[in-house]
């Protein structure tokens, strides 16, 4: 048994403005129809995809993709679906997922859920409860409609190839959706949880709503910088980037004074626009006395994760005359990579002197600067 997907993209999009049909407008980095196409194309359970295009549309940039058939649509949506079904090389009990190109927010998990629903049902579709009050206008005025038995139905809708092909080829009707074509057959329909991201772009304002829902307006990368200084005090070691380095002095600070991890933590807060180290860990709070700065860094990383971001790479520069950082650089990178759960090649640690100039040149303390790049966490 195979799984085929049909994406209907042959409509004129008359309810939005402009001459380009809505499914060919740009949303984020790509055209609207490409969002679902990419998800279906990379889904391990989907064998073939039929993209139903307006006959005028030359789709040469995607026509040579593996698993992809392109066919021309018809005057109505149901006719476009018929054309798609006819172009498939499918068996009666193969599964067909029929999807509107104008619904870009398709998630891989929803495709899997639809496919597994057909183990016990004839057809399946994503559905959402109606949450607004519903009224019917009649001559007598407004009348309440009980919404508790009502659903908003989205696509993809899943069918057995034999059943949906027979139902649509028996008539030339244009159905409100594909489920309506098999309604009279008494088919068992499974409704699975839909999602607002699957709503259809119908009107011009839906482009703004979808841009927000799919979070495509914002950059996929965030960058922050951090800088920190600690002065020397009597002691026998310093701790930089989680690594104890023997030295004839120590760094003064409320916590363990890990100047490298403080700079990195501040860079992460910076990328998230969440203030600085002092906001999150006030030096006035006795709780942080002699604290391991790994706690600060872990906290910044978990705030990033909660906001949907993860550290992609960082570059830390330690500025001092002494101690010599180079012999400890590998250990410092390893400690940082372990804490951030990142491969070593994403962690750069460098060191420089200031040629005897300034407070670091006078060996009064150590400075560090860091840059952190965050990328979106995979969904
Ligand atoms: N569709 C199609 N062939 C048609 C009509 C519609 O392939 N003859 C597709 C649209 O491209 C869209 C989906 O069916 O992806 C849902 O239809 P709808 O939202 O109604 O799109 P349009 O018909 O293009 O828009 P409108 O009704 O506003 O003109
Ligand atoms: Mg239409």
Tell me about this structure:
With 379 residues, the chain is of the alpha/beta class. The protein has 12 helices and 19 strands. It folds into 2 domains: 3-213, Spore Coat Polysaccharide Biosynthesis Protein SpsA, Chain A, CATH 3.90.550.10; 221-376, 2-Layer Sandwich (60s Ribosomal Protein L30, Chain: A). Strands 5-4-1-6-11 form a 5-stranded mixed beta sheet, sandwiched between helices. A 5-stranded mixed beta sheet has the order 16-13-19-17-18. A 3-stranded mixed beta sheet has the order 10-7-12, with helices on one face. The chain is elongated. The chain starts with a strand and ends with a strand. The protein binds cytidine-5'-triphosphate and magnesium ion.
Task: Give keywords.
single chain; 379 residues; alpha/beta; Spore Coat Polysaccharide Biosynthesis Protein SpsA, Chain A; 60s Ribosomal Protein L30, Chain: A; 5-stranded mixed beta sheet; elongated; binds cytidine-5'-triphosphate; binds magnesium ion
Q: What are the low-pLDDT stretches, counting only 5+ consecutive residues below 50?
A: none
How many discrete structural domains?
Answer: 2
Percent strand equals 25-35%
Name every ligand kind in the structure: cytidine-5'-triphosphate, magnesium ion
DSSP summary: helix tally: 12
Mean residue pLDDT:
93
| CATH topology (level 3) name of the largest domain | Spore Coat Polysaccharide Biosynthesis Protein SpsA, Chain A
Distance between the termini: 29 Å
Largest sheet: 5 strands, mixed
**Reported CATH architecture of the largest domain:** Alpha-Beta Complex
CATH class of the largest domain: Alpha Beta
Q: Looking at the structure, what is the overall shape?
A: elongated
Tell me roughly what share of residues is in helical segments: 25-40%
In terms of structural class, how would the helical and strand content be classed?
alpha/beta
């Amino acid at each position: 048994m195979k799984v085929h997907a049909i994406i209907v993209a042959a409509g004129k999009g008359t309810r939005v403005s402009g001459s380009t049909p809505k499914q060919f407008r740009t949303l984020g980095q790509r055209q609207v129809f490409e969002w679902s196409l990419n998800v279906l194309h990379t889904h391990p359970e989907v064998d073939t995809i039929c993209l139903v295009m307006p006959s005028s549309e030359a789709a040469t940039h995607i026509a040579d993709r593996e698993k992809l058939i392109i066919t021309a649509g018809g005057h109505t949506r149901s006719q476009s679906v018929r054309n798609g079904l006819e172009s498939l090389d499918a068996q009666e009990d193969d599964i067909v997922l029929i999807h509107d190109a104008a619904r870009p927010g398709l998630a891989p998990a929803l495709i899997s859920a639809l496919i597994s629903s057909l183990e016990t049902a004839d057809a399946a579709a994503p559905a959402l409860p109606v949450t607004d009050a519903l009224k019917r206008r009649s001559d007598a005025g407004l009348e309440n409609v009980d919404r508790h038995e009502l659903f908003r139905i989205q696509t993809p809708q899943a069918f057995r190839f034999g059943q949906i092909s027979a139902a649509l080829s028996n008539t030339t009707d244009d159905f409100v959706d594909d489920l309506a074509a098999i309604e009279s057959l008494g088919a068992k329909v499974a409704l699975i949880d839909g999602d607002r991201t699957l709503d259809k772009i119908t009107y011009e304002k839906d482009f703004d709503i979808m841009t927000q829902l799919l979070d495509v307006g914002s950059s996929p990368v965030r960058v922050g910088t951090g800088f920190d200084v600690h002065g020397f005090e009597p002691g026998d070691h310093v701790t930089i980037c989680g690594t104890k380095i023997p030295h004839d002095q120590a760094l003064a600070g409320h916590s363990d004074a890990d100047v490298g991890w403080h700079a990195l933590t501040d860079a992460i807060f910076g990328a998230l626009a969440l203030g600085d180290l002092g906001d999150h860990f006030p030096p006035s709070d006795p709780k942080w006395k002699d604290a391991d700065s790994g706690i600060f860094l872990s906290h910044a990383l978990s705030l990033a994760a909660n906001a949907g971001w993860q550290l992609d790479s960082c570059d830390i520069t330690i500025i001092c005359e002494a101690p010599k950082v180079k012999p400890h650089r590998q250990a410092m990178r390893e400690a940082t990579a372990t804490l951030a759960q990142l491969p070593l090649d994403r962690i750069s640690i460098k060191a420089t002197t200031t040629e005897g100039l300034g407070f670091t040149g006078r060996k009064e303390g150590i400075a560090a600067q860091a840059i952190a790049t965050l990328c979106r966490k995979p969904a």
